[in-house]
Design a protein that fits this description.
With about 300 residues, the protein is an alpha+beta fold. It folds into 3 domains: about 90 residues, Rossmann fold; about 130 residues, D-amino Acid Aminotransferase, Chain A, domain 1 (2-Layer Sandwich), CATH 3.30.470.20; about 40 residues, no CATH class. The longest helix has 18 residues.
Length: about 300
C-alpha cells in the first residue's frame, strides 16, 4: 500500500483474550516503531465498541497487534473486512484455521508435513482417564502463547486436574520430546531457524518474561534439519493461506534424525514484544523492528 499522504494507522491492542497483557506489550512496541517510521498512529484497546471507534477514527490501515481469541481467530478480521479497512497479517480464513490446532494438523497432514497424533476430548473425560497413553500434552484447541498447557509424563499416577478456565473440549496430543525451534515466514520467504533454550517447558512465562528463555539465532543444526524447518514453515504458511508474517513452531528429537522433526502449530499473529522471536529473526536478516512494522503496513489489504 502506498500513498502520498501520511497514513493514519490504528494499532489494535489489548482486547478480551487470555493473552491481553502480551497484546498490550506488542501493540505499544509496534505503535512506537510506527511513529518512528513517520506514520500518524492511534492506539485502540479492542473492546465491544471497536467498530464504532474505528468508524470515528477513520484510519487508513489497521495494524493488528491482538493475540488470542477474537483478535487472531478471524473475528476482528471479519469486522475489518466489513468496514473495508485494510489490515495487517492474515485474513479471515487463515486466521480462523490456524487458531484451530486440530484443523491445522489436518491441513499439515494433507500437505505431507510431519505431526504427532492427537484427539479432541471432553474436558471431564480427560480428567477421569488417560484418553491416550502417556506421555501426552493437554491444551486448549484454540489458544496460543502456551496458555493452559498440561504435560502428563510416562508413568503418571493418573490424569491431570484441569483449571476451570479450560474449555469444555480440549486437545490431547502425544508428547513430542526434544528441542524447541521456530521459523518466521515473511511473505514468501522463510527468515531463519531459532533454537529456544529453557530450563523446562516453553510456557507462558518462558515466552514473555525477561530471562525466561534463551534464543540461538540462527540455530546450530545439521543442514538437513535446518533446511527442513525452513521448507516446512514456508509450506505451512502457504497451505494455511497466511499473509504478512507467520511463525511455525517445531520439536526435534535429535536421536531420531529427520524422522524426529514435527510441526506443533503456526501462529498468524507472532508476538512483537522485546523478547519476541519474529522481530529477532528479522533483525538477524537485516530487517529492523521499524522496517518490519512498516513492511506489514505496506502489505495490509482486505479481501483475504
Amino acid at each position: 500500500m502506498s500513498s502520498g499522504k501520511t497514513l493514519r494507522i490504528a494499532v489494535l491492542l489489548g482486547g478480551p483474550s487470555a493473552e491481553r497483557e502480551v497484546s498490550l506489550s506488542s501493540g505499544r512496541e509496534c505503535a512506537a516503531a510506527l511513529r518512528g517510521e513517520g506514520y500518524e498512529v492511534i492506539e485502540l484497546d479492542a473492546g465491544p465498541d471497536l467498530a464504532t471507534r474505528l468508524q470515528s477514527e477513520k484510519p487508513d490501515v489497521v495494524f493488528n497487534a491482538l493475540h488470542g481469541r477474537w483478535g487472531e481467530d478471524g473475528c476482528v478480521q471479519g469486522l475489518l473486512e466489513w468496514l473495508r479497512i485494510p489490515y495487517t497479517h492474515s485474513g479471515v480464513l487463515a486466521s480462523s484455521l490456524a487458531m484451530d490446532k486440530e484443523r491445522t494438523k489436518a491441513v499439515y497432514r494433507n500437505a505431507g508435513l510431519p505431526v504427532v497424533d492427537s484427539v479432541l476430548a471432553d474436558k471431564t473425560l480427560v480428567e477421569q482417564q488417560h484418553v491416550i497413553a502417556p506421555p501426552y500434552v493437554v491444551k486448549p484447541n484454540n489458544e496460543g502463547s502456551s496458555v493452559g498447557i498440561y504435560i502428563v509424563h510416562k508413568g503418571a499416577n493418573g490424569p491431570p486436574k484441569l483449571a476451570d478456565t479450560m474449555p469444555d473440549t480440549v486437545m490431547v496430543e502425544t508428547y513430542a520430546p526434544g528441542r524447541e525451534m521456530t521459523v518466521t515466514v515473511m511473505a514468501d520467504r522463510a527468515l531463519t531457524v531459532t533454537d529456544i533454550l529453557t530450563d523446562g517447558w516453553y510456557d507462558y512465562s518462558a515466552k514473555y518474561e525477561a530471562g525466561g528463555s534463551r534464543h540461538v539465532v540462527p540455530a546450530k543444526l545439521p543442514k538437513d534439519i535446518f533446511d527442513a524447518c525452513m521448507r516446512h514453515a514456508l509450506t505451512a504458511h502457504r497451505v494455511l493461506g497466511c499473509k504478512g508474517i507467520s511463525r511455525t513452531d517445531f520439536r526435534w528429537d535429535e536421536a531420531r534424525g529427520l524422522a524426529g522433526l514435527i510441526l506443533l502449530e503456526t501462529n498468524t499473529q507472532p508476538g512483537m514484544t522485546p523478547t519476541s522471536l519474529s522481530p529477532e529473526q528479522a533483525e538477524h536478516c537485516g530487517i529492523s523492528f521499524g522496517a518490519l512494522c512498516r513492511w506489514l503496513v505496506e502489505d495490509a489489504s482486505c479481501n483475504r
